[in-house]
């Protein structure tokens, strides 16, 4: 990961976390952590919550728009999106992975730059950002959209925004955090999002095909390889 | 009677003549006169005079009158004995005419006040009148001597006008008596027997016996000869003569002169009716049978005040009788208030001038008894604590600031008609309360809004007492202003208040109300924002209004479909184009808002499916990786 990508990831994760906190703080005003936060912030906690939620959303949308530019117009970005696109191999990888996971086979599929897991996560983020951005925008400019979509439209936007938030948060916690933090291979944490690097060992283990591809270009002696 | 007198007169005359005859024959006295003619020979002369102690005195005797008098048959010498017609004057020391030589049976004259009065003082010597004539001449005979001013006033008295004579009180004939404290009651009682009896039972009579006869009796109040028509002569002044005397009635307690003197400034004394006090002492205390206030027979006894005051104030008393206060009083409840408890006794004032009853002081007067828990409130348990809460209300604050339009206890509860709120006629009953609060000068505007609202028609048309009226939302005594500064607190207060009913299963069920009003609000942005502490989020009132709450099917309702853009526009100025296709308070999502329902079902399925898959994937992955590590380790 280049510095640029790490900054993109950082902007995404920080805005995401802020959005999750400030969003669920609205929905569950009596939860202990919400009350603690409100007490810490003081009188206008609720109004501040709304403001911070909007600022974070702007950060996330800005980062997303930059990412769109990045994958459209920079060579490394274009390669990135190419690598993220689902391929036929993903279907067979998935089948084989399932077999391996349930113990039908001892052969672990060999992944390229991105496994089907990582591709799913990426596209989930894309999907989530679009949905949340769109519905959030409607709710933000409610007075205008009320006239466009009526109360039923507002109610639908509210429902989508809420359930999508739950889905996204759970996906991050359940899947992403597992792979980054809990997974026995990387415990306590995969530091790639900070350092930008995977070790050769890690590469061999997780992305052997990519390693082979890179090995064709880069001398064997180099210990750390850019993923 | 006259026959007896006449008979005795004849008998006397016969005896007299007999006696004379004896006298003459026995020769104990000698008369030189043969007949009256000898006497009249000189005494018929009108110019005949004699010298008495240097004064010329007429010696003329009118024979006609003398013959016509009661002594018509009596001869001169019968009275004038030892007269020698040749001697002029007839004797040097004329013997006094001794009436008793004939009239020796004059009963009681010696004991009477006239014992020392000569017969001639009343009876003109040569024109003696018959008893009948004496009667006819009436009081004039008395006035000849009794010409003091006091006695003369009798001619103006009601007694004189009604033909009462001196003798009716002082007795007739020779047994004239003085009338004084000791016999007054008996004398007056001859005619005024009822009054006499009444007086005998009165506190005045008790005073009489306790002071050894110095207590007041008839004339002390009525006067003696100058007695006027009953009422005027004794009105207040008669009573106050004694009762304002601080020596007779010392101290400041009830019954003292000081206590009574407050009457002078009372409304009863300062307003006049037909030139006398509007109400004098006797109007309240009664006349002859006046009693101390705690005597069971006293007209001023607590329990009998309704009757006594009602003589003049019948309209208010009839209201009071029907009131809870009046009923309790009639049932013998000693703590129940009566007229004087609120209005005072002698110092009674009109409500406009009375300090006691001024709007602000009335509160303390009522709270005297209605303090927390002192009188158990029968309909609202725990309510009594709120009564003192009135002092924290806006109503009381306004009074303190001098706003005399602000209501005190009686403005809402009624003064005399004070009734339990549970009573249908009460000003505070469910049906009447709105009218009471909305009376002129008070909350008329709010009443206008309230009339026609679903809450109002619920009560007046459907007779549903679950439906709220003023106090259900505003409270009873501790009525506070709703425009408090803290908008959030106000908002939460409104929501709490509405949810008292609209989130109460019992009330919702009984009245077939929508079941999820409160829940759906709680989960809406407005509800979440309020829960989260937003200052200006919409509460019930923001959309539904307050007094004028109507169902969404009513075209006057703020939540009627075509009125919604305007209602929402109050807070969301850009939302005037807003349109509504589904319910706002969704009861059943599948029916009320199918799109939202579909979205919800879709997402819940998605979440369960995806996250379930992820969890499973994690578990399997973890297991595999641990297996791998172990085998690597070996």
Give an overview in words:
The complex is a heterodimer of chains A (227) and B (634). Chain A has helices at 3-27, 32-41, 45-73, 75-84, 88-101, 116-140, 142-182, 192-195, 200-206, 208-215, and strands at 197-199, 224-226. With 227 residues, chain A is mainly α. In chain A, α6 (116-140) packs antiparallel against α7. The longest helix of chain B has 40 residues, at 594-633. Chain B starts with a helix and ends with a helix.
* Secondary-structure element order of chain A, N to C: HHHHHHHHEHHE
Estimate the mean pLDDT confidence of chain A: 88
Total count of strands of chain B: 4
Please state the overall shape of chain A, judged from the principal axes of the Cα atoms: elongated
Main β sheet profile of chain A: 2 strands, antiparallel
Q: Please summarize the sheet with the most strands of chain B.
A: 2 strands, antiparallel
Could you tell me the number of beta strands of chain A? Answer: 2
- The count of helical stretches of chain B stands at 39
What is the general shape of chain B?
rod-shaped
Sheet-strand content of chain B, in percent, reads under 5%
What is the terminal-to-terminal distance of chain B?
163 Å
Strand order of the largest sheet of chain B: 1-2
| Computed structural class of chain A | mainly alpha
Oligomeric state as shown: heterodimer
Structural class of chain B: mainly alpha
What percentage of amino acids of chain A are in beta strands? Answer: under 5%
How many domain modules of chain B?
4
Attribute tags:
heterodimer; A: 227 residues; mainly alpha; elongated; B: mainly alpha; 4 domains; two-stranded antiparallel sheet; 39 helices; 48% helix
């Amino acid at each position: 990961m280049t510095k640029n990508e790490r900054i993109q990831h950082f902007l995404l994760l920080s805005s995401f976390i802020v959005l999750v906190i400030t969003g669920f703080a609205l929905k569950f005003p009596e939860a202990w952590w919400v009350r603690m936060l409100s007490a810490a912030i003081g009188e206008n906690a609720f109004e501040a919550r709304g403001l911070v939620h909007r600022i974070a959303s702007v950060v996330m949308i800005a980062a997303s728009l930059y990412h769109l530019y990045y994958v459209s117009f920079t060579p490394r970005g274009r390669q990135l999106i190419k690598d993220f696109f689902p391929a036929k191999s993903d279907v067979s990888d998935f089948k084989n992975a399932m077999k391996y996971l349930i113990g039908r086979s001892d052969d672990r599929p060999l992944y390229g730059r991105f496994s089907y897991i990582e591709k799913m996560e990426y596209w989930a983020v894309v999907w989530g950002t679009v949905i949340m951005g769109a519905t959030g925008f409607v709710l933000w400019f409610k007075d205008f959209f009320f006239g466009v979509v009526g109360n039923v439209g507002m109610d639908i936007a509210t429902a989508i925004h809420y359930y999508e938030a739950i889905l996204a948060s759970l996906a991050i916690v359940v899947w992403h955090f597992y792979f980054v933090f809990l997974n026995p291979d990387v415990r306590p944490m995969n530091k790639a999002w900070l350092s930008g690097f995977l070790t050769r060992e890690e590469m061999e283990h997780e992305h052997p095909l990519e390693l082979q591809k890179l090995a064709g270009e880069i001398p064997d002696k180099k210990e750390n390889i850019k993923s | 009677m006259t026959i007896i007198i006449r008979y005795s007169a004849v008998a006397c005359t016969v005896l007299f003549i007999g006696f004379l005859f004896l006298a003459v024959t026995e020769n104990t006295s000698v008369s030189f006169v043969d007949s009256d003619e000898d006497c009249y020979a000189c005494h018929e002369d009108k110019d005949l005079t004699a010298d008495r102690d240097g004064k010329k005195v007429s010696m003329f005797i009118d024979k006609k009158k003398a013959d016509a008098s009661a002594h018509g048959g009596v001869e001169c010498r019968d009275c004038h004995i030892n007269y020698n017609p040749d001697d002029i004057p007839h004797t040097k020391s004329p013997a006094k005419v001794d009436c008793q030589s004939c009239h020796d049976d004059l009963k009681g004259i010696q004991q009477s006040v006239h014992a020392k009065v000569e017969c001639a003082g009343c009876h003109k010597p040569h024109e003696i009148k018959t008893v009948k004539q004496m009667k006819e001449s009436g009081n004039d005979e008395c006035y000849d001597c009794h010409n003091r001013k006091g006695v003369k006033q009798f001619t103006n008295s009601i007694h004189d006008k009604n033909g009462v004579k001196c003798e009716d009180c002082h007795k007739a004939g020779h047994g004239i008596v003085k009338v004084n404290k000791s016999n007054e009651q008996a004398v007056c009682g001859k005619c005024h027997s009822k009054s006499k009896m009444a007086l005998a039972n009165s506190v005045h009579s008790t005073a009489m016996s306790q002071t050894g006869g110095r207590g007041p009796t008839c004339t002390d109040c009525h006067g003696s000869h100058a007695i006027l028509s009953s009422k005027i002569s004794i009105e207040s002044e008669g009573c106050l003569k004694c009762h304002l005397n601080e020596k007779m009635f010392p101290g400041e307690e009830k019954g003292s002169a000081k206590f009574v003197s407050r009457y002078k400034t009372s409304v009863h004394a300062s307003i006049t009716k037909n030139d006398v006090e509007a109400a004098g002492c006797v109007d309240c205390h009664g006349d002859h049978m006046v009693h101390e206030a705690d005597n069971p027979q006293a007209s001023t006894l607590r329990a009998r005040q309704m009757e006594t005051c009602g003589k003049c104030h019948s309209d208010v008393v009839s209201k009071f009788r029907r009131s809870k206060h009046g009923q309790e009083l009639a049932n013998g409840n000693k703590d129940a208030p009566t007229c004087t408890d609120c209005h005072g006794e002698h110092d009674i004032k009109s409500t406009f001038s009375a300090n006691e009853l001024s709007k602000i002081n009335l509160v303390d007067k009522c709270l005297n008894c209605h303090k927390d828990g002192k009188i158990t409130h029968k309909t609202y348990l725990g309510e009594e604590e709120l009564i003192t809460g009135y002092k924290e209300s806006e109503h009381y604050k306004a009074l303190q600031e001098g706003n005399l339009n602000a209501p005190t206890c009686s403005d809402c509860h009624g003064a005399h008609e004070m009734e339990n709120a549970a009573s249908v006629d009460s000003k505070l009953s469910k049906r009447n309360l709105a009218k009471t609060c909305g009376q002129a000068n008070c909350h008329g505007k709010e009443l206008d809004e309230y009339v026609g609202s679903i809450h109002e028609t619920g009560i007046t048309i459907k007779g549903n007492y679950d439906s709220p009226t003023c106090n259900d939302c505003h409270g009873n005594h501790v009525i506070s202003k709703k425009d408090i500064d803290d908008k959030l607190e106000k908002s939460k207060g409104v929501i709490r208040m509405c949810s008292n009913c609209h989130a109460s299963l019992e009330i919702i069920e009984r009245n077939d109300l929508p079941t999820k009003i409160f829940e759906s609000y709680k989960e809406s942005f407005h509800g979440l924002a309020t829960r989260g502490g937003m200052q200006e989020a919409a509460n019930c009132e923001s959309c539904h209004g307050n007094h004028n709450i109507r169902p969404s099917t009513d075209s006057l309702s703020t939540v009627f479909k075509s009125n919604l853009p305007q209602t929402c526009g109050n807070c969301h100025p850009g939302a005037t184009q807003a349109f509504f296709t589904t319910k706002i308070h969704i009861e059943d999502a599948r029916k009320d808002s199918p799109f939202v329902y579909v979205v919800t079902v879709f997402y819940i399925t998605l979440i369960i499916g995806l996250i379930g898959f992820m969890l499973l994937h994690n578990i399997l992955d973890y297991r595999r990786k641990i297996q791998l590590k172990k085998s690597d380790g070996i």
